[in-house]
């Protein structure tokens, strides 16, 4: 196991050129499918699909602006982020955990829970890297031919004047709900909010600091890899 030192870890890439990174998690996980057969304990073949996952949290204002356009045809999604990771470590970093990563966004969120504090935003996504390889009875899938983006949906709860970075689609029949909470004690502070639900056309940078205001938002962005 290697220890990664945050102050010595450099995060760059075209999506985050100006710093402001709070935390990052990344890795490559295999999805294994074994083809079992009668008369043997060993599988007939083993199919492996590699999945790269990445999540990154920044201070509001430090991330990219991304338009979310659902696929009208067999066109690749543009809802991607690119991150270059240079880990500062004690011990050798396993191969593949440094370098450039491009993932398709699966979610975006914004949070500013403190009225006099700072907002943060988070991006998460995944990719299905290649190449196709055959090693004995183990088959590694290649990269998909195309990755399609579906329609993004999200929610927003915020004070007037606070920017969460979520742009709802024009003409969408938006839905509003209400929620409230309070607890006993002194002073027993609670809050009441209006929640906005709708289709999302873009995610961009929310407010870093809007004094006296709080809010949060989240967006889900579906993607579908196709192989042909």
User: What is the mean pLDDT?
Assistant: 91
Residue stretches low in confidence (pLDDT < 50, at least 5 long) are none
What Rg is obtained from the alpha carbons, in whole angstroms? 21 Å
Structural class by SSE content: mainly beta
- Number of alpha- plus pi-helical segments: 0
**DSSP helix fraction:** under 10%
Describe the structure.
This protein is mainly β and 228 residues long. It is built from no helices and 18 strands. The radius of gyration is 21 Å and the shape is globular.
Question: What's this entry about, in short?
Answer:
With 228 residues, the protein is an all-beta fold. The protein is built from no helices and 18 strands. It has one domain.
Features:
228 residues; mainly beta; two-stranded antiparallel sheet; 14-stranded mixed sheet; 0% helix
Walk me through the topology:
Blueprint: E1 3-4, E2 10-12, E3 21-35, E4 45-59, E5 66-67, E6 80-86, E7 89-90, E8 99-112, E9 120-127, E10 133-135, E11 138-140, E12 146-149, E13 152-158, E14 166-168, E15 175-181, E16 191-203, E17 215-220, E18 223-226
Parallel strand pairs: 4-11
Antiparallel strand pairs: 1-7, 2-6, 3-4, 4-9, 5-16, 6-8, 8-9, 8-17, 10-11, 12-18, 13-16, 13-17, 14-16, 15-16
